[in-house]
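Hi all, a correction to my earlier message: I attached the wrong file for Methylcrotonoyl-CoA carboxylase subunit alpha, mitochondrial. Here's the right sequence:
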Amino acid sequence: MFGKILIANRGEIACRVIRTARKLGVRTVAVYSDADAKALHVEMADEAVHIGPSPVGESYLRGDRIIAAALATGAEAIHPGYGFLSENPNFVDQVTAAGLVFIGPSAASIRAMGLKDAAKRLMEKAGVPVVPGYHGEAHEIVLLASKAREIGYPVLIKARAGGGGKGMRRVDHPDDFSEALSGARREAKAAFGDDRVLVEKYVDKPRHIECQVFGDNFGNAVHLFERDCSAQRRHQKVIEEAPAPGMTPAMRKAMTEAAVKAAKAIHYSGAGTIEFIVDASEGLKADRFWFMEMNTRLQVEHPVTEMVTGVDLVEWQLRIAAGEKLPKTQGEIALAGHAFEARLYAEDAAKGFLPATGTLHHLKFPDAAPEGAAMRIETGVRAGDAISPFYDPMIAKLVVHGKDRASALNALREMLARTEVAGSTVNTAFLAALAADADFAAGDVDTGLIGRHQEALTAIPAPSDETIAAAALAATDAGAPGSAVDPWSTLSGYAHFHTLARRIRLRHGEENILARVSARPDGRFQVALEAPHDAVNTHDLRTMPRAVRWPGHVTVFEGAVGYTFTVPDPLAKADEAGAASGSLRAPMPGLVKLVRAATGDVVIKGQPLLILEAMKMEHTIAAPHDGVIAEIAAEGAQVSDGTVLVRFVEDGQG
Ligand code: ADP
Ligand code: ADP
Ligand code: MG
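and the right structure:
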């Protein structure tokens, strides 16, 4: 086994790898950017090396600096985690040339699977079922359009260099083909520097079921069963599980055999995932799954496999890279119970899953597993850490195992209801709604489920009067904003002597709230809501609300929903909203991709004005109100957080 390894990644996956290394007695070196100087993975590692500024291109994607850090610290091997350099064969070559070990497959295996079209041709030859479609070399539009007609609509255009759901367009009708093709090409060119695409049959009622495989350097390959990742938004996974609901013995046998065949065809070593697309229109059938792609790395959702097999996949990665044989034979790998993973993201589900940033002023996970279940919280952040615009906005993965699917799902719901995040918009309520969705609970999942139920899954009910009362009570604790102090003790301390009353102003969305909070000598609190309602509505609070104060705000938790209220600072001067109403600012740093309006244009509320590319996605910036454009950002401009993108002509002006 290695004496010391370097982890070329950040966040939860860096922390995850460090934990297993420590268990095996392997010392660890972390690398970090400016933004991560105080990050958890840096604190956890035995040593840490600064590799550059915050943007990934200047730090986590700088293979040269990472290799230099490994050599300088005497690390023998590099674990790439996922994302970043994990599937970059040139990096693997450089690591090897420097006399270091890459903890992962060979550069040749990565190259074989790197382009989806070539990978499909290779898999077809190896006898693995492949999605019907065109994955040849030609790329003229006329030819691709005729192939699409041959395949039969609907079809899916996919970037051959694609990943993360980018450069993909579903086309339902031949008339839309050429426009979709240029869209997919534009996105692919920008994201991967390669605009070649393939066209395949859009599978009906598609389910995404993938198979975890492992190979060693002695020609052995095994599978560790399947994971279902059909719960997706924008082709990206949200809740994953193992095993796949409704899996039949015949289908599992066919799929795992195909996966092992695929791994063997490229002499695969280390952890990999074979992703299949499944036609579930008539349930799971052994002849209705097709190879989609292989991810030649550890997958984000690997913990669900660990939970149902009891195998530490990172330990296997280290052992195999160190030259050991696969620790278990196929017959020794068994499946037990059911596991889920929910990805907790800083994002606004109600606004099309727009990534969010912010400081996690309050962060609390369940401290014990729900009864009868086992849990893991995989995170790379602590309370007080920031979700910056530079990296993936994932906060944590909530992983749970139960004896069967129903009990594991119940446990997941309970964990989500006990998770508290304040300081950034998060998707906890969305995850909870999905975990409670009737179709999801029945195991009737397909990749379109979230889209079909989007409105119900992302709707946040208005806060109840009880919640507003709890927020008002929490807001009385004005002494120490930022800390999650107990509002109960501060007020009731004085109340031993006399009734204490305070008037509190709050805002929730557009609504102004006025409340009168009194603490009485008997230890009870009374909150009278004087606005927004006409009639004064009095609430007697006996139990402690789950509420936290953070700068300028109060967040009250009701189940998995966090209601955030603004507490206006009476000392603050003018309201900033006034100054901002004449302009539209960038919600995050990014690139102005496409501008659809010009100076002098009369625009109406909701009209798309420009597309901002930020955090790996395109965001449409629409007019917040009717108006006339005075100034608009230029196409291709790189903007930072808060830069004015659009200025409107204000009343009384030009
Ligand atoms: P998965 O199927 O495991 O979600 P993806 O190919 O979508 O795989 O990407 C894996 C993960 O790697 C993503 O969830 C994301 O967190 C991370 N990732 C991918 N690309 C980048 C990148 N350029 N920068 C940072 N993280 C990335
Ligand atoms: P990426 O590299 O971006 O992960 P994939 O080829 O793995 O690309 O596809 C991502 C997702 O797109 C899948 O998980 C699935 O939801 C959907 N998808 C891919 N191919 C098809 C298809 N032929 N029919 C229907 N949906 C598909
Ligand atoms: Mg994929």
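Sorry for the mix-up. Residues 8 and 80 are 5 Å apart (CA to CA).
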